[in-house]
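Homework-ish question, so no full write-ups if that breaks the rules, but can someone show me the predicted structure for this set?
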Amino acid sequence: MFDTVTSARALMGMSLAFHISFTAVGIGLPLMLFLAEGIALRTGNPMYREMAKRWTRVAAVLFAVGAVSGTILSFEFGLLWPTFMDFSGAIIGFPFALEGFAFFTEAIFLGIYIYGWDRLSPRAHWLCTVPMMVSAAASALFVISANAWMNQPAGFEVVNGKAVNVDPIAAMFNRAMPYEVTHGTLAAYVTTGFAVAGVYAVAMLRGHRSEYNKRALVLALAVAAVFTPLQIVSGDLSARFLAHRQPEKFAAMEGQFRTERGAPLRIGGFPDPGARETKYAIEIPRLTSILAFENADATVRGLDSFPQDAIPDVRLVHYPFQVMVASGSFMLFVVTWFFGIAWWRKRIDPGRWLLRALVAAAPLGFVAIEAGWFVTEFGRQPWIIWHLMRTDQAATPREGVAFLLLVFFLVYVALTIGLGLLLLRPSGSAARPPQEAPDVA
Amino acid sequence: MSLEVLAAGVVLIGLIAYAMFAGADFGGGVWTALAWGPRARVQREAIFRAMGPVWETNHVWLILIVVTLFTAFPRAFGDLFTALFIPLSIALIGIVFRGAAFAFRHYGSEGGARLPATGIVFSAASILTPLTMGMALGAIAGGQITIRGGQVATELYEPWLRPFSIVCGLIGVAMCGFLTASYMTTRTGGALREDFRNRALAASLVLGGLTTAAIPVAYADARPFFDRLGSPAPIAVMSAAVAMGVASLVVLWRRWYALAPPVAAGTVALVIAAWGAVQYPYFILPDERIDSVAAGHATLVAFLVSLPIGALILIPSLVLLYYTFSERTDRPAPEGPPS
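A: Not a homework solution, just the prediction itself:
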């Protein structure tokens, strides 16, 4: 079966893949609740209050699973990577401590929010979404800063294999932090916007073109419309940062084997490590040089120019990168289509093809998050701490990780089935299909 | 007091808070399993309603402990998880299933979609977690984890699958049951309250019996622990724990219910504090001292400074949370959470 390092990587990867999806919604939904309940307060329109109420229940379940899966991760640091934590705990533990506070705050106010609908004044209840929003975004900032540190380690010196002169603040504000944090946090809002929109697009495709569904769809897509373009800009900035600071990751993303002046942008294609080239890609001449260095003749370093035992597997980075970019582009296209046609016709009345496109876009935020996370993680390999500690040196000496992998695989299957049963039942979903006007007291 | 000891104090306070708050949620699972008599169903429902708004917040104390461990004591963190690989894995699985089962059952039943087996999973996981966590603490305090040349030298099962650790695991379960039953006496009334009072009395006797039994077991199985019991600090804290335990019996016997939760929480806090007093100044008996496994100065300063700032936000929020949801739960709220 798998050896310890492979099992530990697979288990950590599986746990993060699972956790990330829930955190995205945990960050995005508070904003949606803030908007919906805020509009309800402002306009007195009970539909928005109903919207917020239904989203609350979904938020509650997803937040609970997110909290549980986050706990799994905190234990796995010790169970799987004790050597890594021994070295870096003192350096990057600080942002995790801050994250603990932020998460605590979100849990408290979510608890008050979920159970306080009839115990607080409407205004006080609405105001609970503010600490939820702020602490959720702060959580993302703190946790992602630790991942950024693994890519651009800072804030310490190494003496005899030990980290000394530790400066946790400098470690947190490492070079990659602004880029990763922005990209990772904006992703959550985009994802939530499209996911929520998808629910109402399904309902409308099934013929429930109620005012309620329409308004919910517009609200969700408005969030998506604001954050999708920002996310694409932040993605561009991140790629440029990588081209300068982590060039082997950038080369793997672009499928760039040979160092090249005026490198083309490769769309799709199959990187062939044997032949040292990316086959069958659509190549746009010089565009990678232009995008990364603002110069059509700029030299882009290829994977061949790095020590061959210290570069990532290009296939594990190039394909996810293509998937992420394609997903983002499609989401931008769909949201532009939606508001473009609404602006043109001066009314909101999406046609069947547009609704189908919205349904297709609904899971793409999650797809893009997972793919982007693959890019950043596989692109850092073989390092757990870039250019400092290799992943295979960091794992636990314990046997039996393969068994733990199997156990947690079953745990995640059970959680997924449970969630599916809970959220997909008619009474659990945010848009109850048989509805004309919501029954609001 | 040195920064290292302060940080170790944060771990101890985190453990006490986790036991006092989340312990009661685990106890909820214990009493869900043990609910009997004509009011079994009502007992379960009252527990569920009391837990609903607060269990996730209570759970965060565990995150605080883990984060403090790997920030302030990264070496000990690595060693503990290596030495206690199995009990901590089991505890984790228990935490996951308990949280998920509770959430699924809770939100599922509101929507009329009750998932099968969530009750059993919830109970089993609620017992498993304090049991294995108690066993892990017993292994640490019992001096069962040896570290040679910076590496954990004990086998997979050696430090925790032994009499002293098992007694500590059972103490963990008894504590949880005792806390829940005591807390529930102020959240219920009438015959239901009597049920919880009787359970709290029984649990406090079991807890007293187990903690007393732990001392001869330690003599036989965990000498490093036993040998440290005679120092002044452990004696003082243990005496206070015994006094508080007796007080909780009196309070329950005389039905002074308003006092039951604080006295029960105090008992549990003192039992855990006694464990801390025995351990001090060791982090992992007998090979790792607190100051030898702590992180550097800058890290400890940054971490310790963040605590009061965080507390400034958290404490008012927590007060608001517990204040908003402090009334009786033996009857449905006027209007429940959104359906």
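Now go work out the reasoning yourself. Hint: The two ends of chain B are 52 Å apart (CA to CA).
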